[in-house]
TrEMBL record:
Sorted UniProt keywords: Cell inner membrane, Cell membrane, Membrane, Protein transport, Transmembrane, Transmembrane helix, Transport
Localization: Cell inner membrane; Cell membrane
Biological function: Involved in the TonB-dependent energy-dependent transport of various receptor-bound substrates.
Assembly and oligomerization: The accessory proteins ExbB and ExbD seem to form a complex with TonB.
InterPro entries named in the record: ExbD
UniProt entry tagged with the keyword Transmembrane helix: yes
UniProt name for this protein: Biopolymer transporter ExbD
Membrane topology value: Single-pass type II membrane protein
Species annotation: Acinetobacter pollinis
Membrane-spanning residues: 26-47
Similarity-based family: Belongs to the ExbD/TolR family.
Amino acid sequence: MGMNVGSEDDDGDVIGVINTTPLVDVMLVLLIIFLITVPVVTHTIPVKLPEETDQKYQTKPENITLAVNKDGQVFWNEQFIPNQEALLSHLKENSVKRPQPEVHIRGDQQTHYDAIGKVIETVQQAGITKIAFVTQPPARG
């Protein structure tokens, strides 16, 4: 806090103005200290982080596309499969191919989880190891 003491035109009034220069000096010193120490603190342990990849859906002829509608009916490349035994036999025929095909499951939003679960269980029983779920990308606006 600054005061004016003993000036010629002193009316006896005290000047109530705060001198902010020392405060600004201290804040600048603290800012410089933080700018120097923060990069050292954040990079103490070297870790290689995974990079995000956005893979486009690729339909290959060897992929198996299974669609499950809201009623739980299963379709193999748009052909209706009447029961799980027929689905299992079709999957076992394709599971011996090398390279083994991927199974892409397209499930309706209204499909019950148990219908999709039965399809996944049947795919696993057939011995196919690669299962993928096909989803609709979010609308960009």
